[in-house]
Write a structure and sequence with these properties.
Mean pLDDT: 79
Number of domains: 2
Helix content: over 70%
Structural class: mainly alpha
Shape: globular
Largest sheet: 2 strands, antiparallel
Distance between the termini: 30 Å
Number of strands: 2
Order of helices and strands: HHHHHHHHHEEHH
Low-confidence stretches: none
Length: about 260
């Protein structure tokens, strides 16, 4: 608990809070400039206000998922560091997975303040930062060239295909989908791997809770997708991930008392 109090010290809050405040100020500056640019282009002010209101509204529920991630990580990494990582470039699915993997790599057996050491925290924090920074570096170096290829006219794409060149249009979506399928498959396989066969019988040596929560989360996402398709409510995309997480967490609490 002494380490946790040090991770929640005023100095750490000041450092992380200062960085978050700097990012927030930049966001406000860009928002003001965008609003002024819209007026200069002759866009209806009432429409811009509706867009602002809708954006704020749709950002509320997804941010709840981020808040839950901060709360989940704060028990082992303190509050300021997860707050910083999930307030900037970091993503909930990335931060939690990398932190868990790093904790296992340093030999503390998972994210727990009971086994956390200063050396382990430094390793976890460094890995969480080091792995996420390459997107900024790559975008700075070749972002413009990559963007031009993605937005290339259809004729240019066809010419590139005839010449045997790689057409990158849509590659980002495909790569991201493939990555998530791989991650989900790896995690689910690790729990299914707890099923042991012997003498013609199957014995489950692990816990059924992770599999049950995964099934409930997938079913909830399926409901969101079905509603979006049936009702044509594209705005549900902003709530589907956070909504599935909330349902999964609530179900984990109740199922944890049963399984």
């Amino acid at each position: 608990m002494e380490l946790l109090s040090r991770l929640n010290s005023p100095v750490i809050y000041l450092i992380c809070g200062g960085i978050i405040a700097f990012v927030a100020v930049i966001c406000v500056i860009f928002a003001v400039r965008a609003y002024k640019a819209g007026k200069a282009l002759g866009i209806d002010v009432s429409k811009m206000k509706r867009v602002i209101t809708a954006s704020v509204t749709f950002a509320v529920l997804p941010s709840i998922g981020i808040l839950l991630g901060v709360i989940a990580l704060s028990g082992s990494l303190g509050t300021p560091w997860p707050w910083l990582r999930l307030s900037g470039i970091g993503a909930l699915h990335y931060e939690t997975q990398v932190a868990e993997a790093a904790a296992e790599a340093v030999g503390i057996g998972g994210l727990s303040i009971a086994g956390m050491t200063p050396e382990a925290f430094v390793t976890i924090a460094l890995l969480m930062s080091f792995c996420i920074m390459w997107g900024m570096i790559f975008v700075t170096v070749n972002g413009k060239a990559y963007s031009n290829k993605l937005t290339a006219p259809k004729n240019d794409s066809q010419k590139a295909k005839k010449k045997g060149k790689l057409n990158l249009s849509g590659f980002g979506d495909i790569a991201m989908t493939a990555m998530f399928i791989g991650l989900v498959s790896a995690y689910i396989a690790s729990y299914i791997g707890s099923i042991v066969s012997g003498d013609g019988r199957f014995t489950f040596t692990g816990s059924l809770l992770p599999l049950a929560v995964a099934i409930i989360s997938a079913a909830t996402m399926g409901v969101f997708m079905r509603l979006r398709k049936m009702k044509g409510a594209e705005w549900l995309d902003s709530f589907s991930v956070a909504g599935s997480m909330l349902v999964a967490m609530i179900s984990a609490i109740f199922l944890g008392k049963i399984l």
